[in-house]
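Structure request: Methyltransferase, Hibiscus syriacus.
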Amino acid sequence: MSRPLHRGVSGIRNSGNNNDFWDSQVKDKAKEDMDRNRPSDPSYSSLRFPFRLFFPDNSPSKYGTTENGFTTDPFSIGSPRGWHKLTVLFLKFSLVVVVILALTGSFWWTLSISTLSRGHIFHGYRRLQEQLVSDLWDIGVLSLGPSRMKEIEFCPEESENHIPCFNVSENLALGYSDGNENDRLCGQSSRQSCLVLPPVNYKIPLRWPTGRDVIWVANVKITGQEVFTSGSLTKRMMMLEEEQISFRSASLMFDGVEDYSHQIAEMIGLRNESNFVQAGVRTILDIGCGYGSFGAHLFSKQLLTMCIANYELSGSQVQLTLERGLPAMIGSFSSKQLPYPSLSFDMLHCARCGIDWDKKDGIFLIEVDRVLKPGGYFVWTSPLTNVQSFVRNKDKQKRWNFVRDFAENLCWELMSQQDETVLWKKTSKKNCHNSRKPVSGPPICNKGQDIESPYYRPLQNCIGGTRSHRWLPIEERPTWPSRSNLNKNELALYGLNSEELNEDTANYKTAVRNIWSLLSPLIFSDHPKRPGDEDPSPPYNMLRNVLDMNARYGGLNAALLEAGKSAWVMNVVPTSGPNYLPLILDRGYVGVLHDWCEAFPTYPRTYDMVHAEGLLSLETSQHRRCTMLDLFTEIDRVLRPEGWVIIRDTAPLIGSARALTTRLKWDARVVEIESNSDERILICQKPFFKRQAS
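Returned structure:
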């Protein structure tokens, strides 16, 4: 396990005995007063105590006694000391009067303002009151200290691969069927309140790029039967030995992904897959991606492939793809729109992905058209497209004819068809849909239906994206990597200027340098050499899968790429803040819209680092349906053992977050940015807790 960082809440001081001394004086004086003459009014003592601040009791021992045994009068008229005391008393009394008059005036002024103004003030007062309660709660948590805070318990073994919001058995019980049982269903009961432990024989994944081709069997939920019976084009693989699974292309059982991608390039009219970038292709959505072999091969060609597949209890395509260090998330075409903006991807790929494109009147093809950029490509490989089989199976021919005709009504051009693979190109012309024959194909969405960034909205039976100001064919866009640096006119489409983007980029460049300088010695000293892993030559790749919980313009992604880090970033745009996800995707990155009061659509232990800048401020400024602890528990679920959490926010929120890390059993430290800054950075590492074999 990693070297523990400094624990404990910094900056918290416990008071000494001063308060005890003050309490003892008050109790002794109260007892003396009651013994002398107990008042009949029971509220006397409660009213009298606050005024002791202005009119303190005078102890006889302070002033002494006369020969007759009487106490000397400190307010004697003939004494200069008496005049002084009277003056002080008068000033105190005057202060009380002024305060009372000020409060009374404020009260009458409040009653005299208009009803509308009172409403605004009341609303503001409620906001302040709620914030005060939150702040007091945070102060209470901090004051308890680590020793008084109860640590969160570990989840039972059956939760090792559990994803809240995805419960097939529960969906079936609720009546979902026909593929809808795989739907995402989030509610209050779907939140997880325990910490997920890794499997018994879990091992830290191998560093990239070794980890792309070899993974540990114990890290994923898959059976030997599933390994050898997976027959899709990009699924098949081989077992090297009992503990590892290999995806190397040298394997005799490996399907020819390189030949397959070369074939697609030729169908477009390119020499090979290395020319995809020159054709305007950078981001690819791989539907039902198998185990990510298509995206793994294209990564070396500067192409970024996002894998989406249904939730699976075992042998998950998404889990194995992420374990290899490749972009993936759970996504379903069954009934809801994907959480991506319209016009997001340059290519969509489906190789025996299991989706019946001819079902539900072609509504799945309409969703493909929505997320595909103008001039983008749709590649479909399926036995259904094999023309030679039509002679023996008329039903296949009928289904293929429907897909072909429907694609034509979407204004797609059928560019090529070879064996079982078909390639279409989406139209680059907006007016193509208006030139169709009457009542042919789905209609164009009206303004209310054509939402640019839907969040799990029901599938729409109309063509979307045609109203977008981002309608620009991929061949007219700058090619990668120039595409990541948008010009002045392109930024204006998102309401930004060059100065804002340049400042964001510069800040993240500095942040990445600081993060690497902080983490490099810690990681390298903790793991100079793992069993079966050679020492990496600098610069070694410590992190591969990175989750940015509040990506803004994609600045962290851009800084990591410019620094030459072999990491990919899942850029998440919270639904509670400004939506710059279209900008992020147009820059050639991958990302998704998400509500952080819900579970992220991924399996446990899938990210090496989680980054969040300003997320706590953003979430606390909204009407919160969840707590900071809920958010941190979800971070712990998606974070790999020995993974890192980097949070930057205001000092009070970082203080509250730092206190919660002890409940999560994280090692944590707070780092000051600048002496005059009110922001802090919280750096945490998740320890590697092992489940005991039963």
